[in-house]
Design goal:
The complex is a heterodimer. In chain A, 61% of the residues lie in helices and 7% in strands. In chain A, strands 2-3 form a two-stranded antiparallel ribbon. By secondary structure, chain A is mainly alpha-helical. By secondary structure, chain B is an alpha+beta fold. In chain B, the strands form five sheets. In chain B, strands 4-5-9-8 form a four-stranded mixed sheet. Chain B has a four-stranded mixed sheet with strand order 10-11-15-14. In chain B, strands 3-6-7 form a three-stranded antiparallel sheet. In chain B, helix 2 runs antiparallel to helix 3. The chains are: A mainly alpha, B alpha+beta. Strand 1 of chain A pairs parallel with strand 7 of chain B, so a sheet runs across the interface.
């Protein structure tokens, strides 16, 4: 089925994506390349939000969390940030994005 | 990379000193005219609709508009536009920046991508991708490629039904000047809500030393629609009703993104009241759950009356006990 579809539409490869994807802690660890302890440590300090609480997202993490973790690892790698500067930087970036979104919805 | 300068004022047909209100009006008019659902010439209309949306995206945002006006002042009329030095793509201090990213197929023009959106590593602002110390020349340590972020313009219909979008990502390594373009199609399922991030695995920066490539994070931006606007998964629609429909109640056929519904406007509906139609908004994801459809009631008043209508309003005036300003103090 998949092959037939591919043969019919030549051209650039098709990537299937998910909107509202959620991941278990294990999968999240693998995707970011850090241990679950580290993730829980970040969570304790409020760098990332809690896992979902209801429905299919219960106990799972979303793409927003994955993105934040990747950014944290980048900031640690490239700027040698410690927990305090991470907290501060992420707070600023979050506020910046929130304000931009707010300006956008005001229009 | 030289890009073609876009005259957003001409696209919307407004003057350079047009007010925000003028821009909004011009956009609504054109968006209605060229909206793919409404226009007769679908193919031509879609291009125009995108162009109109892009112009609106920039001109309706005071910050982007100011930046655009400054760019315009530096524009030499030579067909191709060279960005002023110091900007993204200017190449004045190649050591200061990491990779450059340019998108194609996101629904925005190359011009827009270069100055108002563009891709960036981890979504950080320009120039914040490192100190030019990327150990990428024959680095022994395998290192995962960075994540790339960008916006994708999605119409409400696409958010409702899902879509397949051809995308291209051009990466320029400023140290070597090497450019690499990758093309792929992204199948986005229904439920692309504004602001939501979509992860496209493995389509970010290539990895080093045999490590995996980074991911591409696309942030959904809803194209403005002439009739509806979205908030999360909910859709809003302004509905004009006649005074007697608001006072006496009425059943009105209302178009939604997926078919027309019969809406009961209760008697005594005040202007601004929101009527909720459950489950007729955007899909929230795989669960099949959907947002709501909100109708905001606006009362339109007749502006020209024939003699019979006038007589009826006059009769209403003399008969009615309604006093909108309350009883005067005695």
């Amino acid at each position: 089925m998949k092959h037939r579809k591919k043969a019919r539409s030549p051209g650039p490869p098709e990537v299937r994506v998910d909107v509202g994807a959620v991941y278990t802690l294990d999968v999240l660890c693998r995707l970011v390349g850090i241990s679950s302890q580290t993730i829980l440590h970040y969570q304790e300090h409020g760098l990332i939000g809690p896992a979902g609480s209801a429905g299919p997202a219960a106990g799972r993490f979303d793409d927003e969390t994955l993105r934040t973790l990747r950014r944290i690892e980048h900031l640690r790698d490239h700027y040698e940030m410690n927990l305090r500067s991470l907290k501060f930087t992420l707070g600023l970036l979050h506020e910046l994005e929130r304000l931009r979104d707010e300006m956008r919805t005001r229009r | 990379m030289p890009v073609e300068f876009k005259d957003y004022y001409a696209t919307l047909g407004v003057a350079r000193d047009a007010s925000q209100e003028d821009i909004k009006k011009a956009f609504r008019k054109l968006a209605r005219q060229f909206h793919p659902d409404v226009a007769k010439d679908k193919r031509g209309a879609e291009e125009k609709f995108k162009a109109v949306n892009e112009a609106n995206e920039v001109l309706s945002d005071p910050v982007k508009r100011k930046k655009y006006d400054e760019l315009g002042a530096n524009w030499q009329d030579e067909g191709a536009f060279q960005p002023p030095p110091g900007r993204r793509g200017g190449g004045a201090h190649p050591g200061d920046r990491g990779q450059e990213f340019h998108f194609g197929g996101t629904g925005f023009s190359d011009f827009f991508e270069q100055f108002f959106s563009g891709g960036s590593r981890y979504g950080f602002p320009d120039g914040a991708t490192g100190f030019g110390d990327e150990p990428d020349s024959g680095g022994a340590r395998p290192r995962r490629g960075g994540d790339v972020e960008g916006d994708i313009l999605v119409t409400l219909e696409e958010a409702m039904r899902g879509t397949v979008r051809p995308l291209s990502l051009r990466m320029v390594n400023p140290q070597t000047g090497e450019a690499d373009t990758r093309s792929f199609q992204v199948r986005i399922p229904p439920g692309a809500i504004d602001g939501r991030r979509i992860r496209v695995p493995g389509q970010g920066e290539p990895g080093h030393g045999g490590a995996a490539a980074g991911d591409l994070f696309l942030r959904v931006r809803h194209a403005a629609h002439p009739d509806y606007y979205s908030r999360e998964a909910d859709i809003y629609h302004d509905l004009e009703v006649a005074p007697w429909e608001a006072v006496l109640g009425a059943e009105i056929m209302v178009p939604t993104l997926d078919g027309t519904i019969k809406l009961r406007v209760p008697q005594g509906t005040e202007p601004g009241r929101q009527l909720r139609v459950r489950g007729r908004g955007l899909p929230k994801g795989k669960t099949g759950e959907r947002g709501d459809f909100f109708v905001i009631v606006e009362v339109s008043l007749p502006t020209s009356l024939n003699s019979e209508e006038r007589a009826l309003w006059e009769k209403l005036r003399s008969t009615s006990e309604f006093d909108p300003r309350g009883a005067p103090p005695s």
